[in-house]
Every structure is written in structure tokens, then in C-alpha cells.
Design a protein that fits this description.
Chain lengths: 165, 165
DNA sequence: TTACATTATATAGCAGGCTAATGAATTGTG
DNA sequence: CACAATTCATTAGCCTGCTATATAATGTAA
């Protein structure tokens, strides 16, 4: 009788896990980005970094990290690689020497024109209609808000739960 | 006039990107898993691997890879780390020496009992109701299907698109 | 049966991700 | 002012992920 050490009842199935659905789908889409971003010679996280810089050039390492919702220690080498590619430059702030500002180079600014076709091309590659995309963004954001809400509730008292795995 | 090299019109904003929403949300949830899985002394991908093995012990490396929707070259070292932790054993198949079967050890089987509380505890940590979770799984799966559909359509002729970024 | 393709796994090299620890600059406080 | 705490960035060490390549076993065709 192995019923205690195997999942005969199917209580822990990978295809029922919300996190797995998001994790595998985001990787599937990222894989579709790859050939498009290859034309700009950047990776997906580097592309996200550029998006932020095209909005606000000269922002700090920490601001890029929080925009991408990644750790600062992940952002530093990411930006260093962009610097090595000649897409950005880094420069210590004069007012506060702890801070490092990230600036687009001419090459980095020029990539913007190439990037403009990426969303359209990706739409072709994944064939997802705009309505579903917007709905998913909304739902994903509501999950992140919920996590933040619970996480900040140091006094976690009456938090009831469900099996959302 | 920098309007050609910066995104004044907001055409490429990170918060409008569906892929970013999935990518950042999946990492946010994975971070909530970490303390729960620390009790089993496994990572999230290792936990997914265990889920598959609790369903079908003794399956091949390639079967684990396809279940997790990761590359086979990612699966091998993942399984090797589980082996080093004493959670699984690997063994060349007798009938076909190319194949490697992965078996749970007693320790690996025992972890199942501990894992049973993970979905509940994660629900507490992220506070997402079951209905939303199921909806997201469905939507994510429909995206993956759409990608497969287009990807397999070598004769991609009349595929119209949208900006789903 | 030799030759060639295919299959299954493993390895190498690179780019993220994370936590933890380090270092340098700034801020806050007694 | 001095010293502690904080802040910002970097580095180190680990675990994913990927592509490309290698290696061995199997399948297939001439």
C-alpha cells in the first residue's frame, strides 16, 4: 500500500497549480520574443530595461530594479552587460556618490525605432487577442497586490485561505 | 527634439506588457513558496519535479522535462541535484541504455506528507481565491495552445495580430 | 553489415534569478 | 562632533533557464 507516499488522489498535480501556469506560460512567451529581440541583440530582461530607460533616461540602478520587480543584485550585472554591449553607460551621481545613474547611449536610443515593431510581431507569434491580454494583466496585478497586502500585514490574524497552489 | 529616441507616446510601457505581468507575478508567487518549500529542503522547480514523480515514479528524464515544460538540458542537472540531496536515484534503463529512469527514494516518498500542506499554506500567503486561480490557469493554457498552434503552422499565411506585447 | 540518421542524456557556456555579505557614502542621533 | 544606522551598489555563491555540442545507443537503409 503506497497510498501514503504517492499521490493516488491527485492532490498535487502540476497542471492544477496556478504558479506553474504563469511560470510556464511566461517562459513560452519569452521564447517567442527571442527571435524578435535578436534583431536588437538584447535579451528579454534587457529589453524590459530599455523600455524603462526610454521612459526615463538617467534613472538609478535601484529604480530599474524596482520597475522590473527584480532584486538590485540582479539588476547590476544586467546593466553591466548592457554597458558592455554599448547600449548604456553608468555614472556615479555627483550629489550622492552611493547612487549610480544609467544613461542610454546613441545606440541605445536608436534601438527604440527597431523596438517599435516588436509588440506587433509578438502578437503575430502568440496570436492572443488584446482583450485576453488586458484581462490577464489585470488579474496578474490583482494577485501581486494581494501578496503585498498580506505581506505587509505583519499582524496576520484572520487570513483565511484556499488551495490555489 | 528627442521624440524619435524616447518613448514620449508611451508605446512601449512595461506595465502594458502581458509577458511582464506573467513573468513578474510568477516570480512573486515563487518567492512566497520559498519559505514553505524550505521545510522540505527543495526549490520550486524541484518541488514540481517531485509532483510529477509522486504521480509516476520511475519516469524518464525527458518525461520530467516535458511535464515541467523545460528543456532536457535543464532537467538533467535539476535531477542531479535532487539525487545529491538523496531524494531520487537515477538508473540506466536495461532495455534501452540511452534512457535514464528517475526513482524516488524513501526520503523522496516521505516528503509527500509534508508537501500536502503546501497548497493550503501558499493560499494563505497569496490570498487568491480559487475561482481566480482556475480562471488564470485556463487563460494561461489557452495562450500556450495558441502559441503551439501558430508555431506548428509552418504555412503561416493569414495570421492577423494585435499588440499584446 | 556498414553507413547514416535518430534518439536520450550529458556537458559547456552564457544570462538571468535569488540570498547573503561587503564596501562606501550619507543620514540620524546622542 | 562622533558613532551608529541606513542606503545604494557590488560581489560571491548557488540554482535555474537557454542553445549548442558531444557521446553513446538504437534504428534504418543501402
Amino acid at each position: 500500500m503506497k497510498s501514503c507516499t504517492t499521490d493516488a488522489k491527485g492532490l498535487l498535480k502540476i497542471e492544477d497549480q496556478m504558479c506553474f501556469a504563469l511560470y510556464s506560460t511566461s517562459r513560452a512567451i519569452t521564447k517567442q520574443y527571442a527571435p524578435l529581440l535578436a534583431k536588437l541583440d538584447v535579451t528579454y530582461p534587457q529589453y524590459l530595461t530599455l523600455m524603462v530607460l526610454w521612459q526615463r533616461d538617467g534613472i538609478l540602478v535601484q529604480e530599474i530594479a524596482s520597475s522590473l520587480e527584480i532584486d538590485q543584485a540582479t539588476a547590476t550585472p544586467l546593466i553591466q552587460r548592457l554597458e558592455k554591449s554599448g547600449i548604456v553607460t553608468r555614472q556615479r551621481s555627483k550629489e550622492d556618490e552611493r547612487k549610480v545613474q544609467v544613461f542610454l547611449t546613441a545606440k541605445g536610443r536608436d534601438l527604440y525605432k527597431l523596438a517599435l515593431s516588436v509588440p506587433h510581431d509578438l502578437g503575430c507569434a502568440i496570436g492572443v487577442d488584446d482583450k485576453l491580454a488586458k484581462k490577464l494583466i489585470k488579474e496578474a496585478n490583482s494577485i501581486k497586490r494581494s501578496i503585498q497586502r498580506i505581506g505587509s500585514a505583519t499582524d496576520d490574524k484572520d487570513l483565511d485561505q484556499v488551495n490555489t497552489g
